[in-house]
Structures are given as C-alpha cells and as structure tokens.
Task: structure prediction
Amino acid sequence: MVSDIGIPPPSLATTLCGWAESAIDPRATPPVRSLGMSDDKPITFAMRCMLVVLMAEARELPNARIADRGLDLKKEYRERLVRRGWISVRKEGRGISLELTEAGWAEAIAQLSADPPAGGGAGGAALYTVLNRLGGFLDRSDMAAAEFFAPAAAGSVEIDVRIRKAYAEIARTAGEMVSLADLRPRLAGAERGDVDAALVALSGAPDVRIIPESNQKTLTAAQREAAVRIGNQERHLIAIGV
Result:
C-alpha cells in the first residue's frame, strides 16, 4: 500500500468519480468482481464510485445531488447495488435518496485497500491512489473508516438536506403544506440566517413550493416569527414533492 501524504477531503471522491464517469460508459466498463461476493453480473467502476461517494458523505443523499456532482448512475446499476444489499433507496417526492447499508459500508471500506479496477482509466488510477493512501493513514492511526467519515456536527450538516428530512417527518404525504413554525424546531443547532438562506435557495427547486398563508388573520405569533422573507413577501408554508 502506498504511504499517505495527507488526508484527502471527502469531496475529492466525488470529483474523481465524476471525472471518470463522464469519460466511461458504465455498460462498457469491464467487469470488476465484488470483493468477497460471487455474482455473475459485472460490478462496474461507476457502481464502485457510488459506494465510495456514499461512504465519504456518510449519510443519506438525494440521488439528484450526486448526479449534479457528475456521478449519474442509471437505474439498472442502482438496482444491482440494492440487490446486493449494499445501498438502500428511499422515495422522496419525485426523487430518491440513497444510503449505504452495513454491507455497503464493508464493501466501500474494502476499496481503501483495493487495486484500481480494469477499465477505470486515469480517473480510476487517481481515485484508487487517493483511497490507498487514505487506507494507509487509517491503518497507522488505528482509526476506523466510519470514524474518519463521521458526519459533521449537526449545525454544519448541509441544511437543505436537513430541511427535506424534517419535512418528510412532518408531512403525511408528499406535497402537503407544512408550517415553517413546525419545521424550524427540527433544525436545532442551525443558525436562523443559514436556515433562511437554505429556504430561499430551495424555493427555486422544481419540487418545492414556499408560499404565504392566504388568510393572514389566522396566523399565530409563532407562525409569523417562523416566516421566511422571499422577494417582498413573508412566506409561512412549505411543500416538498409537488
């Protein structure tokens, strides 16, 4: 294993995988066998990249966010990962979110000591050089990969993801209007300004609506306080999955 020259930031995995994915059709990638698991179907380099990205992020991620970063794994290949028990998929409005299972974590961690897969090209060589060096660092530090990749403190987790999770916990169905007064308490630890900025950004998403209460006379003091100003309006209700 190559000795480490420092700790690569987790986002580097997405960058390298996105670079390689843009140059390689996963259907044309030569088979890469699963470490420790027999399977007649090929495990492509792009599928391995998905495991590495989910390990680096160490949390559930919207598939659209991963695709925006350059790793757009087609449904067929996601389903193979599901069948192997490596990822879980959760429907969220019109999209889906992905997360590693316990078995998926084991497979992703195995990549830290694996050789670059055939057909990975320059991106694969670069990614696995970084992974091998990170694996060396973890071995010498006696640190578990799960500890190294543990999510940041609650206040610094990407707030838009937290907003979507909080909404899903409150709403009975996707697209239901939820009061921001009910949603904000579930974002404990996040600064008010950061939450407001995230709500403003989310308001431009195709599956999100943030609107004013039509009957302003019914608003309580708490509901008025929880409103977010977007444009020249105070908005009190949010719907996701519309």
